[in-house]
Structure formats: C-alpha cells, structure tokens
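Would you be willing to look carefully at the protein I have copied below?

:::
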Amino acid sequence: MGLAIDVSYFLAAALFILGLKRMSSPVTARDGIVWAGAGMVVATLITFLTPGMHNYGWMTLAIAIGGGLAWYSGKKVAMTDMPQMIAIYNGMGGGAAAAIAAVELMGGEFHSSTFQVLAVIGALIGSVAFSGSMVAFAKLQGLIKRSLVFPGQQLLNLLVFGGALVFGFMLMSGQPGSFSILAFFGLALLFGILMTLPIGGADMPVVISLYNALTGLAVAFEGFVLSNAAMIIAGTVVGSAGTLLTQLMARAMNRSLSNVLFSGFGSGAVSSAEQGSEGIMKEIDATDAAVMMAYADKVIIVPGYGMAVAQAQHKIWEFARFLEERDVTVKFAIHPVAGRMPGHMNVLLAEAGVPYDKIYDLDEINNEFPQADVALVIGANDVVNPVARSNPDSPIYGMPILDADKARNVICVKRGKGKGFSGVENALFFLDNTRMLYGDGQEVAGKLIAELKQL
C-alpha cells in the first residue's frame, strides 16, 4: 500500500507541474487545467487509503458540498466577475490551511519542534491570505467602495503584526493555550484586513497574485506538518508560480511590491492640473468613427475593463470581423494589468471567439502603433495614459503603457469623462489626434457595426 500511495503522489505531482506548464499558453491552457484537476483527483482519492485515516463520512460530505458549490458557482459566474471569484476561492485555500494549523495547534502533538514552527508559520500566512482575499473580493464586488486610509495606519499595522508574531512565538515554544491560539489567529486575520483595506482598485491584480502565492506557501507548510506529499508539492508549485506572477505584475506597473502594499496608490484622485492634461476632449460620432476605420489599412483595438463591464467583447469582435471583410488589418493589444486580474482580458476575448494569433501583448504590439491608422481604445484608461512616459510627478510615471497615442488617429470609447482606477486624468483624451466616442461599450459597438453595414 505504501508503494501505491507514493506512486500516486508522484503521478499527482507530475500532473500538477505539466498542467501548470500547459497553462502558460492560451492554446493549451484548457488542457492544462484538466491535467491539474486530474492530479488533484488522484491526490484526493489516494488520501482515503492513507493508513490511520478516519472520518470518511465527514470527508466525503465536505468534498460533495464544496465540489457542488464550486461547480454551481463556476457555471453561473459571469466572466466580468471572475476576478472576485478567484479572490474568494484563493482566500478559502488560505483559510483551509489556517484551519488545519489551528486543529494541529489545539491538539498539541507534533513529531518535532520544527513541525510546530512550520504549523505556526503556515497558520500566519494562511490567515493573512484568507482575510486579505475576503477584502479584495469585497472591493472587486463593490461591497467596499472606498479605500480606508488614515494617519498612523502603517504603525497600527505594524503593531498588529507584531502582536501576532508574539503569540506565534509563544505557540512555537510549546505554550498552545486557548487564549494564545485565539489571540494569534485574531491578530493574523486582522492584519490581513488592515493591510488590504488601503490598497486601491488599480493594484488589485498584484494583490490577488500575492495572496495566491501566500496561500500556496501556507498549504505547503501544512503539508510538511501532515507529511502529505500532495499538499507540499501543490502548495510549492502554486506559491512559486504566484510569487513569479506577482513580480511580473509589479514590474509591468514599474512599481515595487512594497509600494503596492503600503503606498495606497489607486485609492485617491489626482487633479488634472497635476498631470498636465490641457485642452478639451474632442467628440466624434459613430458614423464618422466607422468611416475612419472602414477605410483604414490597420486598426489596433485596445480593450480595458470597461469593455468587460459593458459585455462588449462579442460586439467588438463582430465589428473587427466586418473590418477584416473590408481588408482592414485588425489586431488586439493587451496590457499585462488590463482588467482586474492577470490574463483576465485574454480570457474575455477568447470567450468572444477572438483567435489567439490576433491578441498581442505590450512588447509585441507597441512598435506597430506608429503604423496604425486608428487605435480604438475601449474601456481602457491608465494603461494608455502617456503621462506614464512624460510626467515624473505622476504616480504612474515609469509604468510601461501601450503606445496608443502614437497611432495616426485614436478613438476612445468611454461612458463619460471620469478618471481611471488610479484616479489619474488621462492625457490621451486631450491629444490632437484623439477623438472621444461616448456611450456604453456594447451600444457603441452595435452602432459601429450598423454604420459599417451601410457603407
């Protein structure tokens, strides 16, 4: 039996790693998810055969309830709500790791002091990931509409974290009293909440990636405590991948992780004058916009989260196909932090049927904007703001952006004259070659299609 368990865990680990590898490409990502899921099924089933395992009824009931709820919510959730679903599911992973640690700490029986230390570390990380992810979910869902920033906030956070460490050291030293355990978990959960509350919506992709990494690490630590190879491998893979993704996302914004966590960026507004936005926004109607793109040689479409909110991706792809029928070259440009989580915009476009070979990332597409007749920006804001290149006083200065402003003509589809998630006025809207096409993204796309049909 021991050999069968070891072989099964090895198979599960191989499926996890191969699945993650296949997720790195949009072409094979679906298969990667299936492979990783198969690995999780193998790891779960073999757990029932582990010597000394009991409570099979409760285990089966928990799997049935959790799996059923996940299947139902996964089928029902809209693609625009996917980021908050990822946040809450990720938080559940951290919470599960913390709950495992709580049971072990209350039992007080460890193979060695090292395992006891790992249990406390996993509990701390998992608790922070759980409560922080819940706040991230509430922000993305609109339940928390404002970021909480107040004087002395970082000092309070430090005191709370220090308190959690004090009780954590008490638990590590073999003093697992009920009060110590409750105080430790209470302070750890509070720290996750306090750390996430001041972070603005513009930084949510990085925050989700960070908590994903923390959840993976917590699971890995608890895997060591339980001597469960599947938890160790899965947690390590998730933790390392999440850490790498967090670094890449922060780099895409040209900011350090500490700046993301402690600056409160994205939580307040910055005046137009501070950003050097001058002039007026020049409006264009759907008829003139359709004519401009119908007789263009190349059109680059830059989608943002506003497109997702308007559920306009299907109409935009329909419009793109009409342009291609008129021999217009159409490409889609995606910024790494477009949307509310990494890869969100790619998934939305794929759902609408946009072929993978028409979707380009920032490094691939930026040198093509000067040759584009029209850059159609729909729902994107901060990721095309030229002050990121030109104004050292701007909070987004240095962030790599899509060079939409370098196209011969720019058409920006927008509901109104509001700012982006960072609160920074977009200088692109005031440029001489930019025209504003106001309205709901889906309605505007429908009008553009209707106008193209009449040409």
